[in-house]
Amino acid sequence: MAPSHVLKCCQRVLAWVPVVFIALVVAWSYYAYVVELCAFTITSTGEKVVYLVVFHLSFVMFVWSYWKTIFTSPASPSDEFCLSKSDKEEYEREERPESQQDILRRAAKDLPIYTTTASRAIRYCDRCQLIKPDRCHHCSACDLCILKMDHHCPWVNNCVGFSNYKFFLLFLLYSLLYCLFVAATVLQYFIKFWTLCRRKSAENCPKNDLPDSHAKFHVLFLFFVAAMFFISVLSLFSYHCWLVSKNRSTIEAFRAPTFRNGPDKNGFSLGCSKNLKEVFGDEKKYWFLPVFTSLGDGCNFPTRLVIMDPEQLTVSSQNEPTKSSGANQPFPARPLSESQNRLLDNESQWVEDGSEENVKSGAKKHVIVSLES
Q: Which residue from 25, 36, 193, 275 puts its CA 20 to 30 A from 316's CA?
């Protein structure tokens, strides 16, 4: 027991190493830019003022979003997804997987769940002893089931999911802007210092060259570090922008969610505009502030809707009992209540390709295309 406890403590301490590394780099970049560049190198007062104002704006937003990403606790499923005491005891007594699935189906019949495992079984976490909501996954690093889990990020020592995904995106955005601004404003002094370093003697330097001082090393490294981080973060930020536009998590991009009709990576996509609102909220004035504005509760997500004409709906409803009674159907399909999510409160619905169409007066019923994680 003691060695195991010590090992866990060591793992917790080591998990903060990447965060401490980033914090030290950011602290050094602040010193190098504000003190070595603006205070000791730049001679123009106007240039100093403009650089310092813009720098501190980007620095504050970057640190704020990074802080929120790190220290926002990942959201876990509510108690309604936990098995009752009697169901849990019955589940633990059963040894046959079929009987265990029967217990889970009975417990999940009133839950807003539309996705299953690839084998059409109820998604159940033995570790947390709960039925997983849609898009929820167990994180081995956090040892928790995380709502709309995207990935566990070592650079923030936290799981990125429903509660902090917006903060993570803003952290990437403001780190990009921070690195871009630093690299762009340092570039001219980087060139001058780089030229100065190649001079054989001070007498060969032009009159307007900067003095050969210790500030040149900070400026040279500042440009290299800013450019390197900008290139690295740019690819990651671009990838997550694409994920947001498709309403996918990193896990769903690699393993499509499985719905009643099979796996589909676009199962939760409502169109680019509504996908953005699901993450950033309805009010655009808060989109670029690291405050929580995401829609929903993390347990229940609207799925892609297909508008069907009355004849197609009749044929589908006639065939539905046969499908629902099969062993592959773990729980009855239920249309998502539009009142449960503001994304579906508009007068029009989103069709499969993500675009809006006018709803015909005769076709007021909608069915959910089953697909998922």
A: 275
Q: How far apart are CA 47 and CA 49, in angstroms?
A: 6
Q: How many Å apart are CA 240 and CA 230, to the nearest integer?
A: 15
Q: Which class for 292: exposed (0-12), middle (13-18), buried (19 or more C-beta within 10 A)?
A: middle
Copy the structure tokens of residue 63: 């640190």
Residues contacting residue 236 through CB under 8 Å, at least 6 positions apart? 172
299 and 147 Cβ atoms separated by less than 8 Å: yes
The CA distance from 260 to 316, in Å, is 14
DSSP state of 223: H
Note the pLDDT tens digit of each residue in 33-91.
Answer: 999 999 988 889 999 999 999 999 999 999 999 999 999 999 999 999 999 999 999 99
Yes or no: say if 301 and 268 are a contact pair by the CB < 8 Å rule.
yes
CA distance 36 to 29: 10
Residue 241 annotated as catalytic: no
Q: CA-to-CA distance for 317 and 323, rounded, in angstroms?
A: 10
- Cα separation, 199 vs 321, whole angstroms: 84
Options 128, 136, 139, 153, the catalytic residue: 153
pTM: 0.80
